[in-house]
Design a protein that fits this description.
The complex is a heterodimer of chains A (about 250) and B (about 475). With about 250 residues, chain A is α/β, with parallel strands linked by helices. Chain A has helices spanning about 40-50, 70-75, 95-110, 115-130, 135-140, 150-160, 180-190, 230-240, 240-245; strands at about 1-10, 15-25, 30-35, 55-60, 65, 80-85, 90-95, 140, 165-170, 195-200, 215-220, 225-230. In chain A, strand 11 (about 215-220) and strand 12 form a beta hairpin. Chain A is globular and about 55 Å long. The two termini of chain A are about 30 Å apart. In chain B, the strands form three sheets. Chain B has a ten-stranded mixed beta sheet with strand order 4-3-7-9-12-14-17-20-22-24. A six-stranded parallel barrel of chain B has the order 13-15-18-21-19-16. A two-stranded antiparallel sheet of chain B has the order 1-2. In chain B, about 55% of the residues are buried. Classes of the chains: A alpha/beta (about 250), B alpha/beta (about 475).
Chain lengths: ~250, ~475
């Protein structure tokens, strides 16, 4: 599904990613852990196609195609979804309207018919229940005045509605209390399927006891310093990142 | 609602091009000789077989106009206008005025159909009556008969002068006097047509009333005059729309709108202004110098102005409310978009005279390209305005780095118990917002339109339902080419 080869990225001329290799197959969930400033969010943004990140070397293939040649919205149309660490506020635009616009844009890209208001509402109602999202929250402007937990639940709702094939979750656990964390984790787990790959970026192990990964990678100084199974996360929790920080 | 679907379809076709209303109708027109003189004024009056009092009023205005100077305080720049180079009257040639829609020149019907304004009643938007003004004259008014049955007068102002002279004589110039300002005075001298509405006591007008203005002829100014009177306890919602062909030279539009609301009456006046804005280099476009004012004469009267201004090369317009009656209320909701080289200097005046009068101003200015957008507004609390309140909110949104936004609020208070609040913000569409939308699959131009429509939401929701959707799309269209 996703093949990253020797990916090197600079921001304002400063190297951030220094040769990443990573393969994720359909049905797998990988976790990327690492200290602050190791390049975790940069990797997420580069995959999603944010401007300001210069790829100086390497390739990224997604579903066999050159991901880096696609525009941001094309990637979304092809099923790549990024759950933001800091979801963005859009005043005056209701969450419902935003979600409907996004869903219909993606459906249009895929050559599917657009949903009308009734069809859309029916779909959303199915998805909101499990996430504890109320109709009232859907009427409010996108992320405006949302608590940290509401913002993250809203990201998971968007993911559930857009049904991506590759979901990248950037520190979805940051700023969540334990109840909110469980709701978000349940939402993510419900979306795990043999056809879908996920990349979960996190600083802490605690998320990974709710969302159990197939593989764990440690990112430090722009490189994958170590990879392992789910037990690697527990080891990191016990020892911290000191070993990787000092290694450089 | 087949009509509504039709309109939406029309708009869809519009979104695919730039300014789709830019066509010219080939129709034989009758014009006044070029230029402006007492003879021009008399020519227009004679064309309309006007009574002596009106001719005298026009001439008084014209003589006064000769002593006036064009105002220069607005933040708009344009080459001097040669008023002798314009035509002041142009009308589609017809043997006699059409007596029914069936007699209207098919070319004209076709024109309005192309604009998405079908004039055949069976094809109309449900619940909307339309007066269509083509250059200097009203060519058709729909649902007139149906409205007459309940006692509502909705016709062209020329017809009102003939059929309801007392009403016209009582109210014409009573809100905007002939000597008011340079452009209003010019209008008083040479106004040609426009709409007239009278809603009798205690009646709620059962449908939206609407006037559709079209400038077709070259080098012709349009000087329409609209007068709306809501008698005690009545209600009316009125909407105007405007378009013009694409022409390289600038065309002049100087309208006057007067509203009068008596005790407990309410007038809701909405404008979707989409005059030709000029091309991407700033060539051509309409000069829109408009005076709109409403008087809340009676207790508890209400007047609200809602405007979506996306067209015109220059917009100079300050729809205002004079709150005379105690407890009367005025509102101004505005969206002004300037793209390419458009300039807008627009806002409102809220003149509080009565006790406990209230006003609310919500202004949303959007500038992109080289557009310049100014909010200019006055809130005046008179001596007698005890307990009066005003709330103003002026928000500006900038897209790109070559445009400008300016806010010029004037506040005068002569009463210590009056309260005035003013808030203003200036913001840009952030990279974060655009990236967020695009990551969700929304293409960049759609994302900009979505964000801008969100920015304008408080104003859009004031529009009658049928038009809110159109206005939203229009805002999207006028932003075309503003990104990337």
């Amino acid at each position: 599904m996703l093949e990253i080869r020797n990916l090197r990225v600079t921001v304002d001329g400063k190297p951030i990613l220094k040769g990443i290799d990573l393969d994720i197959n359909a049905g797998e969930l990988h976790a990327i852990m690492g200290p602050n400033g190791s390049g975790k969010s940069t990797l997420a943004y580069v995959l999603a196609g944010r401007e300001g990140y210069e790829v100086t070397e390497g390739t990224v293939r997604y579903k066999g195609r050159d991901l880096l040649a696609m525009s941001t919205e094309e990637r979304a149309g092809e099923g790549l979804f990024l759950a933001f660490q800091y979801p963005v506020e859009i005043p005056g635009v209701s969450s419902t309207n935003f979600l409907k616009t996004a869903l219909n844009a993606v459906r249009k890209y895929r050559g599917e018919s657009e949903l009308d208001a009734m069809q859309f509402l029916k779909l959303v109602r199915q998805k909101t229940k499990a996430l504890g999202i109320t109709d009232e929250m859907l009427k409010r402007a996108v992320n405006v005045g949302f608590s940290g937990g509401e913002k993250k639940r809203n990201e998971v709702l968007q993911m559930a509605v857009l049904e991506p094939t590759l979901a990248v979750l950037d520190e979805t656990d940051s700023g969540l209390d334990i109840d909110a964390l469980r709701i978000v984790a349940d939402g993510v787990n419900a979306l795990r399927s043999p056809a879908r790959a996920m990349l979960v970026i996190t600083h802490y192990q605690r998320l990974l006891s709710h969302i159990v990964p197939d593989r764990v990678h440690v990112l430090a100084h722009g490189r994958i310093a170590r990879s392992g199974g789910k037990e690697l996360a527990l080891e990191l929790e016990a020892k911290g990142y000191a070993e990787f920080v000092e290694a450089a | 609602m087949a009509g509504a679907a039709n309109t939406v379809e029309q708009l869809r076709s519009v979104t695919e091009g730039k300014y789709k209303y830019g066509f010219v109708t080939e129709i034989e027109e009758e014009r006044a000789p070029k230029g402006l003189s007492e003879d021009t004024v008399r020519f227009i009056a004679a064309k309309k077989s006007e009574p002596e009092w009106l001719v005298a009023w026009r001439l008084k205005a014209f003589r006064h106009w000769l002593t006036m100077e064009e105002p220069s305080w607005a933040l708009v720049h344009y080459p001097p206008i040669d008023y002798q180079e314009h035509y002041y009257y142009s009308a589609p040639k017809a043997k006699e005025g059409p007596k029914s829609l069936g007699e209207v020149d098919p070319e004209l019907l076709k024109t309005y159909e192309k604009l998405g304004i079908p004039l055949r009643e069976q094809e109309m938007l449900a619940g909307v009556a339309v007066d269509a003004v083509f250059d200097s004259v009203s060519v058709a008014t729909t649902f007139k008969g149906k409205l007459e049955e309940v006692g509502i007068i909705f016709c062209s102002i020329s017809e009102a002068v003939q059929k309801h002279p007392d009403l016209v004589r009582t109210y014409l110039g009573s809100v905007v006097p002939y000597s008011d300002n340079f452009f209003a005075t010019l209008n008083s001298a040479v106004f040609t047509d426009g709409s007239f509405v009278y809603v009798p006591k205690g009646l709620r007008c059962p449908m939206e009333l609407s006037t559709y203005f079209r400038i077709n002829a070259a080098k012709t100014g349009q000087f329409e005059r609209t007068l709306i009177i809501a008698d005690k306890g009545s209600y009316v919602s009125y909407l105007e729309g405007c378009t013009a062909p694409m022409r390289d030279e600038n065309q002049l539009h100087a309208a006057v709108v007067e509203l009068v609301a008596l005790d407990d009456a309410e007038i809701k006046y909405s404008t979707v202004q989409n005059w030709y804005p000029g091309d991407a280099e700033g060539k051509g476009g309409i000069y829109n110098f408009v005076t709109k004012r409403g008087a809340c004469r009676g207790r508890n009267a209400k007047i609200s102005w809602t405007q979506v201004e996306t067209g015109s090369a220059i917009t100079w317009k300050y729809p205002s409310c004079i709150l005379e009656g105690d407890n009367s209320a005025g509102a101004f909701y505005s969206i002004a978009v300037t793209n390419n080289y458009q300039q807008a200097d627009t806002g409102t005046k809220m003149i509080h005279l009565g006790r406990n009068t209230r006003s609310r101003i919500i202004s949303k200015g959007i500038s992109c390209g080289h557009g310049q957008n100014t909010y200019r507004g006055l809130v005046r609390m008179g001596h007698g305005a005890a307990g009066a309140r005003n709330y103003s909110q002026c928000d500006s949104l900038l897209i790109g780095d070559k445009c400008g936004a300016h806010t010029v609020p004037y506040i005068e208070s002569r009463n210590r118990t009056a309260k005035v609040e003013h808030e203003a913000t200036t913001s840009k569409i952030s990279e974060d917002q655009l990236f967020y939308c695009r990551q969700r699959g929304i293409p960049e131009e759609d994302a900009v339109a979505l964000i801008v429509n969100g920015f304008c939401r408080e104003v859009l929701q004031e529009l009658p339902m049928e038009f809110a959707v159109e206005a939203q799309k229009l805002v999207g269209i006028s932003l075309e080419g503003s990104v990337g």
